[in-house]
């Protein structure tokens, strides 16, 4: 959460001349409601089922850059599917960076109650090993310019594909 998945994903897709899809935005488009509303009505479990279904479909597409929600890795099937489908990049951000990037956001259901720092620290502790399990590459985003970072990732992916 707050690692820059959407911003960086858009830039990377533009460089690669691919379609960009944010899975959270896709869920909102398909349901006609926002993520907080889904959490309110269906709980996190209901949202995760929707997320699983959308990501199963997106993983089968070619020529797309997909930004997943931060909790997508909680489902073992999703982790396996994403890892097999393409090149997964884990954008790692420290809790301090996440706090700065999510400070004004009211669109994050998991941060709506309680100590935001503690929640983010707990989520990172729980999810970091899962992110690393699914990732082909870990990129640290703290203090990095998204434009330069996208260009760096694009160049390295292009270099790998030509090797």
Structure description:
By secondary structure, this protein is mostly helical. The chain has a single domain (5-147), classed as P-loop containing nucleotide triphosphate hydrolases (Rossmann fold, 3-Layer(aba) Sandwich). 61% of the residues lie in helices and 10% in strands. It has helices at 5-16, 23-31, 35-59, 76-85, 95-102, 116-134, 146-162, and strands spanning 19-22, 64-67, 89-92, 137-140. The strands form two sheets. It has a two-stranded parallel ribbon with strand order 1-2. Strands 3-4 form a two-stranded parallel sheet. The relative contact order is 0.18. The model has no long low-confidence stretch (mean pLDDT 90).
Question: Could you give a short account of the major beta sheet?
Answer: 2 strands, parallel
Count up the helices: 7
Q: What low-confidence regions span 5 or more consecutive residues with pLDDT below 50? A: none
Approximate strand percentage = 5-15%
Give the strand line-up of the largest sheet.
1-2
Average of per-residue pLDDT values: 90
The CATH class name reads Alpha Beta
Q: Could you give the order of the helices and strands?
A: HEHHEHEHHEH
First-residue to last-residue Cα separation: 33 Å
Q: Under CATH, the topology is which?
A: Rossmann fold
Provide the domain count: 1
